[in-house]
Amino acid sequence: MQRAKIISTGSYVPSKRLTNGDLERMVDTSDKWIMERTGIKERRIVAEGENTSDLAYEASKIALLRAGISADSLDLIIVATVTGDMPIPATACFLQSRLGADNAAAFDVNAACSGFLFGLSAANAYIKSGMYRRVLLVGAEALSRFTDWEDRNTCVLFGDGAGAVIVEASDGQSGVMSVDIHSDGNYWELLNMPGGGSKYPPSAPSEEAAANRLYYIKMKGNETFKIAVRTLEKLVLDALEKNGLKASDIALLVPHQANLRIISATASRLGIGMDRVMVNLDRCGNTSAASIPIALDEAASGGRIKDNDYVLLEAFGGGLTWASAVIRW
Ligand code: UT7
Question: pLDDT tens across 286-315, in order?
Answer without folding.
Answer: 999 999 999 999 999 999 999 999 999 999
